[in-house]
Amino acid sequence: MSKKGMSEEGTGIRVGVAQNPTQAQVQALFDYCPERGLLTNRFTRSRLSRLGDQAGWFTKAGRQVSVNGESYAVKKIVWLHVTGEFPSGGYIVNKNGNKQDDRIDNLEFFEGEKIVILFENPDLPTQEEVREYFNYHPRSGRMTYRITYGPARLEGQVIGRPHIKFDVCKVGAYHYPVARLVWLGHRGEWVRNESRIRTYVEEDVLGHKNGNQRDNRIGNLERRVLSIVDDEERRLALLKVNRTEIAGINWDIGRQKFIARIVVDGRNMLVGGYPTVATAEAARVKALKEIEESDKILAEITGGS
């Protein structure tokens, strides 16, 4: 039988449910180009996966490929294909950060489990969580990782990266100003950073005494109450970021409508687009009442069970 007519079953390859593939098995299935980092089929596996096609399918976390019904990251199969060792007991990362670049020179193996930093409530982290993940150095105002959480988050490494005038740290899918984490870890209070655009007549914010927003020494941080007396100044500032003066409603230039949103369980939910602020506000209030009624019904059902 020609290679083109072969199926994966025809190769005699059988990988058990709890058994990882071997180098000989993946080399029988795929060809690998180390210069381009491409894994290609050695024969036609299906109508959509033909001889010479790039193996697997695209995901944001890196390509995936199927070996006898089991899904594997292409980088793992590449590592096995070249080194002869399946990367168990650890994980592989792309050195340059490009998860689609599977050249063997761009892959690196790390032993142990990959530890993920996550706040239980992303909108309201706790002092205990901050102290669990980070160490704070009061003389420099810097925070560092307490332990190694991966190749890009090493024990003792300073957290944060530049963002406009201040530093931010990524936790899960969220970015937090380092100053807020410092204040929370030191004082136990979650306060927003001072913003150029003030969205309320008075704001309780976290500011830097010397004006340097990267100087996060605890003695340089302070809570402030910002006040805008001039309503016209406030209105113009809000319009610069397409906002109205009503919480949860903003003007969409592209759609030429007022967009109403609500927050449910820490997530923004779209209510709809409306021709006037009044109709948008009415729709938003109605949506909030419906959510409140649903919560009451759910509480009654849960309490009665």
Work out the helix count: 6
Give the oligomeric state. single chain
Shape: extended
- Count of structural domains: 3
Parts with pLDDT < 50 across at least 5 consecutive residues: 1-17, 196-202
Strand order of the largest sheet: 9-10-11
Helices and strands, in N-to-C order?
HEEEEHEEHEEEEEHEEEHEEEH
Number of strands: 17
Q: What structural category characterises the helix and strand content?
A: alpha+beta
What characterizes the major β-sheet?
Answer: 3 strands, antiparallel
Fraction of residues in helix: 10-25%
Strand content: 25-35%
Average pLDDT taken over every residue? 82
Rg estimate, integer Å = 27 Å
Walk me through the structure.
With 305 residues, this protein is α+β, with helices and mostly antiparallel strands. It has three domains: 3-111, Homing Intron 3 (I-Ppo) Encoded Endonuclease, Chain A (Alpha-Beta Complex), CATH 3.90.75; 115-241; 243-305, GCC-box Binding Domain. The protein is 24% helix and 27% strand. The strands form seven sheets. The protein has a three-stranded antiparallel β-sheet. Helix 3 (127-133) crosses helix 4 (178-187). The model is unreliable at 1-17 and 196-202 (pLDDT under 50).
